[in-house]
Amino acid sequence: DHVRVFAPATVANMICGFDVLGFAVDHPGDEVAMYRVAQPGVRIRSIAGDDGRLPLDADKNTVSACVKMLLTHLGLQDELGVEIELTKHMPIGSGLGSSSASTVAGLFAINTLLGNPLSKTALMPFCVEGERLACGHGHADNVAPALMGGITLIRGHNHLDVISLPVPTELYAGIVFPQVDVPTRDARQLIKEKVLLKDAVTQWGNIAGLVAGLYESDYDLISRSMHDVLIEPTRAILIPEFYEMKSIALAAGALSFGISGSGPSVVAIAKGEAVAMQAATEIQQHLTAHDIDSFKYVSAV
Ligand code: HSE
């Protein structure tokens, strides 16, 4: 009696929407295989693809901790036994929503194994708790798109209010992960608590413009709107060659370029797969020329 679940990587913030916008990609993603066993309790059988970085202790591992949380919520913690095999297909601390993908896969798996007692909407707060365990802050802009797919807007965090937005058919992402570690916890501490009103006005104009652009499939409007004046200037310093990569992406025809989540991955948003591929390839060549190893992923949004 077992299930296998895949949950995708996600690009949080979608460049201009810090903590409120995010989208899922087709690949990479993490996999959870969950087995129902006779002995009660939640255990990790194995973790692959993490270079030994994740804890096997079921109380410390985010995936198993979230599964336990859900079982406790359902009053099943003393009777149900499950064992987990986690396979990671993306780097940790990369800005691709790695912990979110594992958490969502784990929670979706246990919910499926139990015959879906919770809807996706009801599962969402448990996913957010997983994010909080992983990085100290319960933002939903990775877990929401990982669970729902497509593009999601998190209108409210206090009372979670998640809205799925339309995905224009030709929207593609060229993602490059320069191999330096930027933990979300650290990248959040850098950000200033206060912003200037004029910058806030620019930012919410852009967020509204992007949402309108998605509804209209208006790629020019999407391109004009995807700029971040609040967070990027601070976080860009953690990312090698950031502004050079931006110039390369825009010259290759990308609609926009920015940080994926809290970085260090960067993302070129493009109309069409060919442009996304071109931008990501040229960025990777630039990094190689500067002795920086990288991975690239090109996917439909
Ligand atoms: N919105 C979050 C941030 C996503 O930018 O810190 C990171 O997981």
UniProtKB/TrEMBL annotation:
Pathway field: Amino-acid biosynthesis; L-threonine biosynthesis; L-threonine from L-aspartate: step 4/5
Keyword Membrane: no
Residues holding ATP: 91-101
GO BP terms in the entry: threonine biosynthetic process
Classification via InterPro entries: GHMP_kinase_C_dom, GHMP_kinase_C_sf, GHMP_kinase_N_dom, GHMP_knse_ATP-bd_CS, Homoserine_kinase, Ribosomal_Su5_D2-typ_SF, Ribsml_uS5_D2-typ_fold_subgr
GO molecular function: ATP binding; homoserine kinase activity
Main localization of the protein described in the UniProt heading: cytoplasm
Subcellular location: Cytoplasm
Record EC number: 2.7.1.39
Domain of life: Bacteria
HAMAP family: Homoser_kinase
Family designation: Belongs to the GHMP kinase family. Homoserine kinase subfamily.
Function comment: Catalyzes the ATP-dependent phosphorylation of L-homoserine to L-homoserine phosphate.
Name this protein carries in UniProt: Homoserine kinase
Lineage, top ranks: Bacteria, Pseudomonadati, Bacteroidota, Sphingobacteriia, Sphingobacteriales
